[in-house]
Each structure stands twice: as C-alpha cells, then as structure tokens.
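User: Structure tokens for both sequences below?

Assistant:
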Amino acid sequence: MATLNVKALTFDVFGTVVDWRSSLIREGEALGKAKGLSVDWAKFADAWRGLYQPAMDEVRSGRRPWMKLDDLHRESLDKLLAQFGIKGFTEAEIDHLNRAWHRLDPWPDSVPGLTRLKRKFVLATLSNGNVALIVNMAKYGGLPWDAVLGAEVARHYKPQPECYRTTAALLGLAPGECLMVAAHNGDLGHASEVGLRTAFVPRPNEHGPGSNRDVSPARQWDIVAKDFQDLAQQLGC
C-alpha cells in the first residue's frame, strides 16, 4: 500500500458511509405514526432516492443554475408527497422530513473505521451533499471528518471532473495523492479518470434486501476492502 503515496482519503457519503435507506424509512415511519398515516415508507425512500440523479442532471447540464442538494431534495419531496397522496403535513413537518438526509445513520463500521484512518490520513468528504447537510450529518452520527468538501464547494456535482479535481486542490494535493473511497463502481471510475486512487468498499444492503447493485468490484481498483475496518487494516492504520 505504501506505493500508493496517498495523503488524504476522500469519501462518497450516501451509501458508502451512511445507510440512507433505512434511515429515511425510520424517519418516515416516525412522522407517519405521529400523523396516523399508512404509507409504504420503503417504497417512498426508494422513490426519493430515484429522483436524486435526475434532479442533479438538470444542474449538471446547465438547464438550471446551481442549486444545493437540500433544495433539490425538497423539490423531489414535494413531488412525492403529491404522488403518494400524503396530506396534512405542516410546513415545519415537511422541512423536518426533508432534513432527514441530515440525520442518516452511519454503517456500524463507519465511525470506528474512520477514527482509525484519521490517525494516518486527512479525511474529507467528496459528496454531492451540501455543506450544511454533511456537517449536520457528521454531528448526528459522530463522523470525524477533517474537511467537508465536494459538490457545493466545487459548484459541480459528481461525476463532473471538476468536483474531484477541486476537492484535491483544496486539500493542497495532486489527484494521485487522494484515495477515493466509495461503494459505487461508477463513482470510482470517474475519480480514476481524473487521477485519484481508488478503494471499493461494498455496501450490499444499501438498496435493501436482495439488491445486486455494486455488490462486487467492477474492475481491479487499487484497494478492495470489506468494510472501513478492513480498509484501515490494509492501509496500516
């Protein structure tokens, strides 16, 4: 691993570090119970995540000016509330539900693994989440980031190369001195094209039981680890 010459680890967050799906289901069920609603919150969570890429595509393409992810999530949420026939929420309750993305639970190995990795490396987010979202999530889950970077800071959403390049540059590093850690083969592929090193950490439960999305490496990444503890072990932490 010494041959990698890596000084910083940059992390995809949604799915790689935190379990967005179970967290959204939990938040929806709590609010639904309080309001006496019968909703398939697993289906709702999947539909919300399903609008994630299309919303960012509008910004990436230039059809819309820059918008932070919180605002894109809110637009998607408003559509889904109508689609699922959910009524009776106050504005404060809708805002609280939208900010469920700020309260996502880390995977069990995330905090202990990151804590080990932090002893040796700079840890930074390279996420499409906006700064306030990622900071609040870190506070909620105890995620020990050194820096919160990525889309909002770069004003570009992944997989646009500027997102990866700007994150490395702001750390004062060449792309090859950064190791992109992600549970998504596509993310790693785009990072690799820009010159970042790559580490694949699968999260087979990200999309729920029975999903086969990104359960194994699509190619020979620099590192393949079973979780963050294993990643720390492989990197000598």
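Moving on to the next sequence.
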Amino acid sequence: MQRYLTAEIPGTGGIIKGSPEDFLVEEIAAYEPSGQGEHCYALIEKRGIATLEALRRLSKALGVQERDLGYAGMKDAVGVTRQTVSIPRVAPEKVLALEIPGITIISAQLHGNKLRLGHLKGNRFRIRVRGAAPDAAARAEEAIAILCRRGVPNRFGSQRYGVQGNSHTIGAALLRGDFRGAVDTLIGDPAAVSDERWRLAIEAYRRGEIAESLAIFPGHFRVERELLGRLVQRPDAFDRAFNSVQPRMKRLYLSAFQSSLFDRVLEMRLDRLEEVAAGDIAFKHENGACFLVKDAEAESSRAQAFEISATGPMFGCTMMEPEGAQYELEREVLAAETLTPASFNLAGALRMDGERRPLRVQLTGAAVEEDAGDIIVSFALPRGSYATCVMSEIMKAG
C-alpha cells in the first residue's frame, strides 16, 4: 500500500476524470516557433484520444508519414490536452484548415527543426475533483503546502504499468531471458480484466488451449494474437513467440520495470525526500546535471532552496552510481531481483544504459477553487512527472 508524504492530512476523497473536461493539460513549451523553417508547429487540442491516435489522424488527413511527425510528450486519452506537433513540409494554412474528429487546431507556425521527445519544460494541469469531502478545499490546501515545501514524490505509479498493471513484470521476465514468463504475463491474468471476451481468451490460454485462445481474442489485441499464432505453430517455442513483439513494445516493458525499481527506491527514501546525504547523486533542477555529493552539510542549503535533490536509479549498465548508504540500498533492490547493472546490457536496441531521476520535483502555480460542490486543483509540474502523484497525495484515493 502506498505511503503518503502528506499522511497527516486527511484525503479529500472524490473522483477525477469523470468527463474529459474534468482533466485539462497544457504543455509548457521549451521554446516558441521562429516563424521560419520546413516544420509546421501545430498547437492542437485533443479531446478523449491518446497522443499516438492524434498523430495517426493528423498523418492520414495530411498525407504525411506518421514517423515524420514530432511531439514533445505523451498525453493521456482521458482528458482535454493541448500539445504541439511538428509536421514537415506542410503550410500552416493547410494545417489550420483541417477538420479532424477529436482534434482542434489552435495555431500553426513554422520552425526549423522537428519536435523531439522531451522538448518541453513541463505541463500545467487543471483538475476537477467530484464528490469530495465537505471540507475538501481546506484539506487540499494543507496537502499542497507540504508538497510545495518538501517536493512532490516523483513516482511513476500505476499508470506506468499498463491496463493490467503488469508491464513491469513482463520487462523483468524479458531481462532475465524468461520468455515463458514474459509470454504468460503478457497474455495476462483473467482476474485483472473486466471484459468478458478478453477474460475467456486468457482462461483458454491458461488451460493450454492456444488455438481456442487465439480464436477468442478480439482482433485489436494484435500483440497477443501474434504471440498466440506463433505458439499454435510451435507450442514450446516461447522465445520465438516473444520475438514477434515489436522492439518498441519490448523497450516499453523494460522501461516499466526500470520505473518500478525507481518507485521502490523512492519508497525507501520517502521520509528523507528533501534531504541529500554524502554519497548521493544529486540532480540540479536548473539544468538537469548530476553530481556526487561529498559534503552533505555544504549542500543542504541548496536542497532546502530546491536547487538540488537526491536522485534514484533508472537502472542500466552505464548508469552513474552513488556511494555509501545509497549505493548499498540500490544494490539491495537489484539483488532482490537477482540482477546486476550488467543485466541491462542487452543486445542491440534493447540495451538499457540507465540514468538518474530526481526523487522529488517542484510544485508550482498551485491553487484550489471551489465550484458547485466540487474542487478544482491547478498546478504545474516539470516534464516527465505525473499529475496523479499530486492528486493521490491530495485525495488519498489510490
């Protein structure tokens, strides 16, 4: 069960994402388009669709290859989100004239380079909480005060681990070369799904009835169906079956496993979230640079001023490692999984170099409003951090 940094403050309760308009997200751009260049930077507002689906619709409408479109970050399907997409060799006027279901074009300007992942400062959120406690606004403000002072725990959380919450366990099995375990986990657990046909397909697989499972799985379960199709041909060739999974998906599973290990380390440091200790690798919030803390007392004022924060591991084979107590803590986490940093040195594109991630991030622009019995919470977070980490501390509902 998740611990909370704001445990002494009762949660507001309630629900979010009751409708798309309840969850508004807007990217904070790293830079503005220059007005010249071969890439059209289109600021889009999408409603109820994921980023990749928005890209698919844009590419189809414009006759541009989907791989040539650029974007700075992935955005959830549940909500109304504003983000920028770069489109090569298309006039802004043509983009502004588009009419695409679920997408509104806000603006379109030229720029010189393709937009890449991470090319943003952060995101602003405006989230409505419905059905909260009568004194929810006061509770939310108290929790926010603590988060502003100590920082927001920079968890990945459940949204990182897929619909069944098992993406990280698929990655763990892949990392160990346990292809039977990877396939079993990917096909899933019947108790973790609510769709009847999906559940029956998983149960058939669990009984060893591979052909029946393939026949039942709905057509849009492309990864599962490809796996099962190969197993029908060679029932014991789990490595061959798992090789049908696209490299992009394999990296997603491996990244989810990295994320789960980071969350585990963060949990162990939660009570000292705002502190740095000798041997820590510290993160400079101004520019993202990392350094080894040698004199904790000398660096403590910078940590209190939120200039630096301790980091946790996104484990990999060349990741910068801490010293002392933090080194021992991180090696214990790896040892519990019977892994070492060298385990992440996989072949080709699956190699995981690793990096450091701050254990906390700064909450800015935070405000609470009351509206028709609901509360509306507004705030901004740096890129790579999740609004759900803030809302779970406020609501205590997950």
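User: Anything stand out in the second?

Assistant: Residues 247-269 form the longest helix (23 residues).
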